[in-house]
Structure formats: structure tokens, C-alpha cells
Amino acid sequence: MNNKNDQEKQIRVWCDGCYDMVHFGHANSLRQAKALGDVLIVGVHTDEEIAKHKGPPVFTQEERYKMVRAIKWVDHVVEGAPYVTTLETLDKYQCDFCVHGDDITVTADGIDTYHLVKEAGRYREVMRTAGVSTTDLVGRMLLLTREHFKNVIVSRRGDKEYSVALEHSSNLGTDSTARSPYTGCSQFLPTTQKIIQFSSGLSPKPTDRVVYVAGAFDLFHVGHLDFLEEAHKQGDFLIVGLHTDLEVNRYKGSNYPIMNLHERVLSVLACKYVHEVVIGAPYSVTADLMDHFRVKVVCHGLTPTVLDADGSDPYTVPKQRGCFKVLNSGNTMTTDDIVQRIIRHRLEFEVRNSRKEQKEVAITKALQKGHIKLNGDCEHTTKAAS
């Protein structure tokens, strides 16, 4: 029989990474890591380290720290974690082992960033979520920005400068490099099991004050996060309604949404402030919806409200019931702002994506041929990757 100390000992798990443009793939990896232990510690690299080894991050380190802290399975975030995971780092935070996905992660010199913990037997691997990565999302936005620049050339001013005509959309998905989920096919295959794994499994108690918000929540970011945190404070149970891809495209235009409905569902469900998600929620908040979920307050941010397709105010019912509330989260970031970041640094991100893909292809081929092993053999790994 185990003694009391053995019974009380918690298994502490370490994960680390860039966590740039935190998405459901990151969340799924952290969910799997948490399942291997009791406490999950997540180290996040600095902007300087990421720029050195991978290229410029989309989000700042402060934004990335905040996003990782909000993932429901994370217990503690370590800021400025070293790019190469060491035994000293694991020991410092009393972690039993390190967990990472089954994809390749190397330094600028082509060295396996986990070779030290692998050699010490303190490494575990979980399955990477297929069909999504930061590189993939940046690629989707670069696809959108290429169409953006075509319109800038045609019209230097006016609405067309910031929109993509829908007639272009049907052609984008035929390009082998196309990654837009609205125009092409995402490799991510959603299942009911995945939704169950991400879901809180909770239902509101009869006495709970239910709060409802709705939107696209595309490219889930710190602006969304701060808004949801503020909405969470308005009651006891927060429900988020997510609009369909077609609906988002109606009021956002261009090639939006960047992430499809299934991807957006998981990204929002991973947020610790969210209790439930309505998949494909109606754009207008109806009396039926409010009565069904016993909604007591409906919230919206400071962003302008787009009218419904019939020209009506989507918040007419909650306004009539006197339960509509505009929230100021103090964060003005929007999905458009992120795309603008990509536009401003387009060439840098194109180079970053190209280099990352070339490096991973080279290493994968070398591994398949048995020329290298990702075990810390710096010299051979560097040659194979160069």
C-alpha cells in the first residue's frame, strides 16, 4: 500500500513553445498534456528567441502570455522560457517530464529543441492536431492579402481598398497553396468526440445568471479574450453564440472567416471564461434563443453592430427586454487588426513560412532515409537541414 506522501504527490507536467496566434491546436496539445498529470506548467518563449529561431512572431510576448494563461487546462505560465528545454528548467519548476506534439521542432542551427530531456527519459509525446498551425493561419491570411493588394491597385481609395470581391473566392481554393477555409478545404476533421473533450460539460444551475454574447470570434485573440473575461463578470454562466461561415462572410466580406466554424468552436471552448457554445447561432438574438437558454443579459462590445440581412437590429429583442449591455473591455484589437499586421510585415512572414516549411521537409526526408536522428547530434542535424 502506498504511504500518505506517495498518495499526495502530484505529477507536474511541463510544456513550452511560441504559442503564437494561440489556436485550438495549441489548446488540444495542452489538453492532452494535462491529462498525463495533475499540474500543467507552460513556458512561453520571448519575441527575441522566436525571431532568432523561427522568424517574427505575429503577437507580442505579453499578448501570448495572456492567451496561454486563459486556456482552461493551464495552471501556470512561465514567461521567457528558454528555446531549448533543459533538465534544469524541469527541475526548477519541479516538473516530472516534458510533453510536446509529434511534430519537428528545431533551433536555428537545426538542433532538436528537446534532445536533452529525451536523452534523460523525461519526455512524452502527444498527437499534434492535423490541419492547423500558426504557419498555416499566416498562410491563409497571406492568401487574403494577395487579393487585397490586387484591389488596392485597381482602386487606391474607397471601400474596395479593404475588400475582396466575392467572385474571386471560387478560384482561390483551386490553388495548391490555398489555405482559406471559406474558399478551400481545411484538413481539420471535426468530430463530436473532439467537441466533448473541449467542452466543460456543465449546465447552468436554476439560480445562475446566464450571459450571452455572439460573434465570429475569428482568429481568437486577446481582444476576444478581454471581452469574454468582461462578459464572464456579468453573471455566472457564459454562453457564446458562433455565427456560421456564410453569415460571417455576409457581414465581414472579403475571404472571412479565416477559420471555419468548427475551428472557431474549439478555439472558443478552450477559453476558461466560456461555459458553452451555440454552434451556428442566429445572427439576431431571438426571443426563442433567450428563453431556451434562460438568458438574463446579452452583451456586445464597442465594435459597430452590423444590421441583419433584412436590415433589422440584431439586438432588438434584448433591448426591448431591457437586458442588453455594451461592454468596454479596454482592448480595441480586432481580427482585422491582425490581418493588417500580416499585411505590414507580409514579406517577413512569407520568408518565415517558406523557411520553416523547407527546413521541416529537409529534416523529414533525412529522418525517413535514416541519415539523422533528432537526438542532439548537432553536426549531422545541421547539415541535413541546411
Give your account of this protein's structure:
- InterPro entries: CCT, Cyt_trans-like, Ect1/PCYT2, Rossmann-like_a/b/a_fold.
- This protein is an alpha/beta fold and 386 residues long.
- Among the domains are: 12-132, HUPs (Rossmann fold), CATH 3.40.50; 192-326, 3-Layer(aba) Sandwich (Rossmann fold).
- The protein is 41% helix and 13% strand.
- It contains 17 helices and ten strands.
- The strands form two sheets. Strands 3-2-1-4-5 form a five-stranded parallel sheet.
- The longest helix has 24 residues, at 346-369.
- The chain starts with a helix and ends with a helix.
Summed up, what is this model?
This protein is α/β, with parallel strands linked by helices and 386 residues long. It has 17 helices and ten strands.
First CA to last CA: what distance? Answer: 54 Å
Total count of helical runs of at least 4 residues: 17
Q: Please state the structural category.
A: alpha/beta
CATH class of the domain at 192-326: Alpha Beta
User: How would you spell out the order of helices and strands?
Assistant: HEHEHHEHEHEHHHEHEHHEHEHEHHH
CATH topology of the domain at 192-326: Rossmann fold
What's the β-strand tally?
10
What would you report as the Rg, rounded to the nearest angstrom? 22 Å
| Spans where pLDDT lies below 50 across 5 or more residues | 146-186, 374-386
- Summed over residues and divided by their number, the pLDDT gives a mean of 80
